Every structure is written in structure tokens, then in C-alpha cells.
């Protein structure tokens, strides 16, 4: 038995010798495997980033059921549907309330650089909090003021000075749809693949910006 163990210890490491015979080929093979692993991890990272960034708003919604137009593709590309669908939903036993929420992907002027940039504007009834976002829910009275919005501090772009001023309690003005708006506060959601940032305001302010005060449609 002892003799067999000694033979096993002295046996030639063929596998290592084959790998070590041509070190350049070994390095090339290891580099190829490492590069393939790197690509897989990058793809997993892109997939996670895409999913997380595009579902942050969805996860913060305070709702059990959401009605959407069958033509809707994503939040920046929604379609309208008739408000009577909400009334029909309210007639269903067990439904406590049905409130409209408005989305529009539009262009605004960066309050810091005054350059145009894309932003997703969200409107809802401030008396019926729609998001589980403390920074938003603490400022519901502010967005009731005409043409007043909250700005996403996680937006992609050059907004550092503007955010610092708002943090100091100052308000900023800029333009959307050739209409002057006031930024009175901040919240954080972050940019997504569909928009560089978000603005939150009341449903009435949203209608004034995009629908000319007409509540005929709901998103």
C-alpha cells in the first residue's frame, strides 16, 4: 500500500506539462476565456441596468392595478384612453378609488445651461398620493401651485449647480412647451433608457402644459 502511494506521488503531471509546454499558447487561451467571461458579465450588467432603470417608477407606484392603453409600449411612449374606463373600474366591487395619472416625454430647457433636453413629465392628483416616495409626498402642497414642478436629482446631465440652489431653498424657472415653470423641490428616481430624468407635478399643471386645461383624456 505504501509503495502505491509513493508511485502516485511521483507520477508525472501530464496535464500541467501540456499546458506549460508552450506558454504563449497558454496565455492566448487564458486571455480568450477571460475576454469571453468579461463580455458575459457586461451583458448581465447591461440587462440589470436596463431593467432596474426602467422599473423604478413602477416599483414606487402606490397602486394594486394599473390600466393602460393597449397601444402603450413604455412610460415615455404611452397612449391615451377614455376617462370613462376609470368610472367603470370604480364600479367593480372591492375597488376603493381609480385615479388618472398622466405621462408625457417632452423637451425642456435645462435651468442651468438653458440647452434643450429630454424629460418625462408625470402628473397626478396631489390629494391622492401616487408614489411611495417620501421626498414627493412631503411636497404635495407645493405642486398644487400653478406651473410648479419637482425635479429628479438623479437626472442625467449637467444639473449640479441647479440642484445645489434648490437644496438651499431657492426656486428656479425654466420652460416647457413655451410655458414658464417653477422648480420648487427635488426627489430622486434617476434616468432611464427612455428619458434623461423626471418631473413630477399636479394633474392640473400637467393639463395646462400639454392639453390646454382639457381633462377629456386620461393616461
Automatic annotation (TrEMBL):
Keywords in alphabetical order: Transport
InterPro entries referenced in this protein's UniProt entry, alphabetically: ABC-4/HrtB_transporter
PANTHER family according to UniProt: ABC TRANSPORTER, MEMBRANE PROTEIN, HEMIN TRANSPORT SYSTEM PERMEASE PROTEIN HRTB-RELATED
Protein name: ABC transporter
Species, as recorded: Nostoc cf. commune SO-36
Organism taxonomic ancestry: Bacteria, Bacillati, Cyanobacteriota, Cyanophyceae, Nostocales
Amino acid at each position: 500500500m505504501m509503495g502505491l502511494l509513493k508511485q502516485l506521488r511521483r507520477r508525472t503531471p501530464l496535464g500541467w506539462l501540456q499546458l506549460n509546454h508552450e506558454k504563449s499558447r497558454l496565455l492566448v487561451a487564458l486571455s480568450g476565456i477571460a475576454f469571453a467571461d468579461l463580455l458575459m458579465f457586461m451583458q448581465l450588467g447591461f440587462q440589470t441596468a436596463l431593467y432596474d432603470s426602467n422599473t423604478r417608477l413602477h416599483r414606487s407606484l402606490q397602486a394594486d392595478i394599473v390600466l393602460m392603453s393597449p397601444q402603450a409600449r413604455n412610460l415615455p411612449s404611452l397612449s391615451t384612453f377614455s376617462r370613462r374606463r376609470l368610472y367603470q373600474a370604480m364600479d367593480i366591487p372591492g375597488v376603493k378609488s381609480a385615479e388618472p395619472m398622466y405621462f408625457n416625454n417632452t423637451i425642456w430647457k435645462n435651468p442651468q445651461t438653458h440647452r434643450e433636453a429630454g424629460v418625462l413629465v408625470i402628473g397626478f392628483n396631489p390629494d391622492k398620493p401616487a408614489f411611495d416616495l417620501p421626498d414627493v409626498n412631503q411636497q404635495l402642497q407645493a405642486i398644487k401651485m400653478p406651473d410648479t414642478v419637482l425635479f429628479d436629482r438623479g437626472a442625467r446631465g449637467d444639473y449640479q449647480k441647479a440642484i445645489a440652489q434648490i437644496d438651499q431653498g431657492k426656486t428656479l424657472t425654466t420652460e416647457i412647451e413655451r410655458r414658464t415653470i417653477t422648480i420648487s423641490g427635488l426627489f430622486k428616481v434617476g434616468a432611464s433608457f427612455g428619458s434623461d430624468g423626471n418631473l413630477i407635478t399636479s394633474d392640473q399643471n400637467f393639463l395646462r402644459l400639454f392639453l390646454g386645461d382639457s381633462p377629456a383624456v386620461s393616461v
